[in-house]
């Protein structure tokens, strides 16, 4: 069979074109798939950067604003992250954009690490300060309690010293009698006969007491609670004392005996039957007391 060379050449050209078209189709499909995978990768990278920026921003929002020393740095970091996040959301995810924001994300992470380390240091310092403050308060409370205790002991000691420095009457003895016309004393326990009393008092030795003139008041209360042989009243602040006899003595810090005769007034006679109370005072302070009975 005879083949026409021109027809053979056409067939060869067509065959070559078909091969080229198939190759171009395969290449185009492969390029399309590569481009599609690249776009997916860039989209994922963009979403990852957005996610990390959002997480960093939320972390800053949760950080306490009590750290005044870094509050400005916190606000600046939050604004920088928010700005990067807003810009990234409106831009297309091409390689140049993703590369740029990945580099910015690395820089922000570095700043974030430094800032969080500073905050951690401040938090630790605050905890130390709080512990020191609590210890200081505890120490102050303990010292205040100790001071209060010392003040109480001091006051108690002063009260003890003041009390110890007071004069005291260790004995008060009352002896009723009948006073005769010749001024003789005839002891009696009969109310209708008695018209006078001998009151004898012993003041104890006390080297801590103030020496000098002392006013001693003797008060005798009758069974109906009146003052026998009323000599008037003396006032000490808001206290009034009605007394039967006043003695002024010179106290020299040594034991001293005082005896005083008290006569009943005419309006007291005859004396009542019953128990009589004898009270001895130094100014307004009672030193001692005793009783006797007339029948």
Cα-atom Rg, whole angstroms?
58 Å
Structural class: alpha+beta
- Give average pLDDT, whole number: 79
Let me know the largest β-sheet.
4 strands, antiparallel
Number-wise, the strands total 10
Strand residues, percent: 25-35%
Low-pLDDT residue intervals, each spanning 5 or more residues: none
What is the rounded distance between the termini?
185 Å
Query: Strand order across the biggest sheet?
Result: 2-1-3-8
The level of helicity is 40-55%
H/I helix tally: 3
Q: What's the shape?
A: rod-shaped
Order of helices and strands: HHHEEEEEEEEEE
Characterization of this structure:
The chain has 295 residues and is an alpha+beta fold. The protein contains 3 helices and 10 strands; from the N terminus they run H-H-H-E-E-E-E-E-E-E-E-E-E. The chain has helices spanning 5-62, 71-90, 95-164, and strands spanning 169-179, 185-187, 196-203, 212-221, 233-236, 239-242, 245-251, 256-263, 274-282, 285-294. Strand 9 and strand 10 form a beta hairpin. Helix 1 (5-62) packs antiparallel against helix 2. The termini are far apart. The mean pLDDT is 79.
Structural key phrases:
rod-shaped, 3 helices, 295 residues, alpha+beta, four-stranded antiparallel beta sheet
């Amino acid at each position: 069979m005879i083949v026409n060379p021109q027809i053979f050449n056409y067939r060869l050209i067509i065959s070559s074109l078909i091969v080229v078209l198939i190759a171009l189709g395969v290449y185009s499909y492969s390029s399309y798939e590569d481009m599609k995978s690249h776009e997916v990768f860039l989209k994922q990278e963009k979403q990852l950067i957005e996610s990390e920026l959002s997480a960093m921003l939320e972390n800053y929002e949760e950080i306490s604003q009590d750290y005044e020393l870094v509050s400005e740095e916190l606000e600046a970091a939050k604004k920088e992250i928010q700005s990067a996040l807003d810009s990234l959301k409106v831009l297309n995810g091409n390689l140049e954009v993703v590369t740029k924001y990945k580099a910015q994300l690395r820089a922000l992470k570095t700043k974030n690490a430094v800032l969080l380390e500073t905050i951690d240091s401040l938090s630790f310092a605050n905890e130390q300060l709080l512990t020191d403050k609590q210890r200081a308060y505890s120490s102050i409370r303990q010292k205040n309690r100790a001071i209060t205790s010392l003040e109480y002991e001091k006051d108690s000691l002063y009260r003890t010293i003041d009390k110890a420095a007071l004069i005291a009457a260790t004995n008060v003895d009352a002896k009723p009698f009948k006073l005769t016309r010749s001024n003789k004393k005839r002891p009696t326990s009969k109310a209708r006969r008695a018209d006078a009393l001998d009151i004898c008092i012993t003041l104890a030795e006390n080297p801590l007491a103030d020496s000098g003139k002392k006013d001693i008041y003797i008060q005798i209360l009758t069974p109906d609670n009146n003052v026998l042989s009323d000599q008037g009243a003396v006032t000490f602040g808001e206290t009034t004392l009605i007394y039967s006899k006043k003695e002024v003595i010179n106290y020299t810090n040594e034991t001293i005996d005082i005896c005083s005769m008290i006569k009943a007034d005419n309006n007291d006679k005859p004396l009542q039957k019953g128990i009589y109370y004898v009270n001895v005072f130094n100014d307004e302070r009672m030193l001692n007391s005793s009783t006797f009975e007339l029948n």
